[in-house]
Amino acid sequence: MKAEQPDSCREWRQLLGAYALGDLAAEEQAGLEAHLDGCPECRAEAESLESVARLLPLADPDRFSRPAPQPPAELGDRIAATISGERQVVRRRQRWRFGLALSGAAAAAAAVLAIAILPGSEDSGNPEQHVEFSSLPAGMKIDATLEPHAYGTEIRVYVKGVRSGTLCQVYLRGPHGERVSAGTFRYRWGDDSTAVLSSALDLSRTRAIGVRAGNRTFVAPVEVTRATADDNSNQEDAT
Amino acid sequence: MPPGALSRERDVREAYAAHSGELYGFAVRSLGDSGLAEEAVQETFVRAWRAGDRFDPQIGSLRTWLFAILRNVVIDLGRARAARPSVADGGVEPSVEPLEQALLSWQVEEAMRRIGEDHRHVLVETHFQGRPYAEVAAELGVPEGTVKSRVYYGLRALRVVLEEMGYEG
User: Which residues contact A213 (CB under 8 A, 6 or more apart)?
Assistant: First the structure.
């Protein structure tokens, strides 16, 4: 259709921009409108350009005259680092909340129940240890769930109430006060997931868990359950 | 995992390379702060990565999806900022309306940046500066009709860019 556009249309069309912006002289406008009355294609084009022209007042020439702001070069690397650091962060809130709903005394039963419901969970039969950090500043919350494995201890940490971007370092403390690192993660504002970390220290030998968030360190005691201690009593911790 | 899922780190890097400039531009425009904008872009890609398996290219483009996430992040950041007494002086809860307006303004400004220099120039001089076409034509040493046709092709180019950016008239 457009390829067969008559020459007369072509000339009128050159005016449609100024027409859409209301810039044509009265005489020129009258002539163009007479053409538009009889040419649905040009009319459609005029209407379409008018809708674009109506948007122009939204733009600020001071803004678009300057080059578009560019993100700092390191932002991409920072995002990549966050993502690869969080690679092990999985959304297991549901499972975790389930564990949280059942407190201390029911922990062993809870583990069994959780396994029955979530067949994906490994090392069946090993009780998880839930640790609630107390005496935290107002608005702050740290929880951890520790789960024994052959390689050591899996630690799922949930932090809330610190600045977004805060680096959190997690470690376990052994029977002689030694620290065994469990790695790091970054708290992100709006993030409702649990960081999944691991430490080489066996849960049976773990006496405390520490979380260093920014420049503050919070420690909570870990009570070793009888079953876990027995299971691992003959294993020597190489760390 | 559906094809096009944003679940590998490499996918995120590619998405970042393709879209971070625009996302950052809109974040700066709507938040008015480059530090907050960086935070918003980072949060957008981290959220996109976490929800990567929910991205379905059948439904919409990656760009549209990322902008939808950014929009939510900006709303969240705006709320968090408004909750602080120093910024909440106006006492007005940030609503969705100004954000949609900011998005549209940003799109038009970004589109103005992307059209050709000749087209942008005549639109700025005639429309934004309100100068007579004849004067602009004399300055450029071209007939007035040429200025008019550049305005026409400028608006057409703007329309194309806006459509590419997802504007649906």
Answer: A142, A159, A162, A166, A167, A168, A187
Cα–Cα distance between A118 and A18 in angstroms, integer?
67
Q: Is B36 on the interface with A (CB under 8 A)?
A: no
Q: Indicate if ipTM > 0.90.
A: no
Q: Are residues B28 and B88 in the same domain?
A: yes
Per-residue pLDDT, averaged over A71-78, amounts to 91
CA of A224 to nearest chain B CA: how many angstroms apart?
A: 34
Domain membership of residue B156 as a residue range:
115-169
pTM comes to 0.57
User: What values do phi and psi take at A107, rounded to 5?
Assistant: -55, -45
Sheet with A195-199: strands ordered across: A129-132, A141-149, A152-160, A195-199
Last residue of a domain, one of B45, B64, B94: B94
Q: Which of residues 171-190 of A touch B (CB under 8 A)?
A: 188-190
Name which of B73, B80, B105 is nearest A58 (Cβ-Cβ).
Answer: B105
d(CA A120, CA A60): 55
Which class is A81-232 in CATH? mainly beta
Q: Considering only CA atoms, which of A212, A121, A216 is closest in space to residue A172?
A: A212
Whether the pLDDT of residue B86 is over 50: the answer is no
Q: Tell me: do B26 and B82 sit in the same domain.
A: yes
Are A18 and B49 inside 8 Å of each other by CB?
no
Range A51-75 average pLDDT: 92
> Which of B34, B108, B169 is the closest to A69 by Cβ?
B34
At A236 the pLDDT is: 41
User: Do B75 and B17 reside in the same domain of the chain?
Assistant: yes
What pLDDT sits at residue B169?
62
Higher pLDDT, A132 or A94: A132
Contacts of B119 in chain A (CB under 8 A): none
Contact of A235 with chain B, judged by CB distance below 8 Å, is answered with no
The Cα of B37 is separated from the nearest Cα of chain A by a number of Å equal to 9
Which B residues 140-169 touch A at CB under 8 Å? Answer: 145, 148-156, 158-159, 162, 169
Give yes or no for a contact between B40 and B31, defined as CB atoms under 8 angstroms apart: yes
Q: What percent of chain A has pLDDT over 90?
A: 30
Which one has a higher pLDDT value, A42 or A88? A42
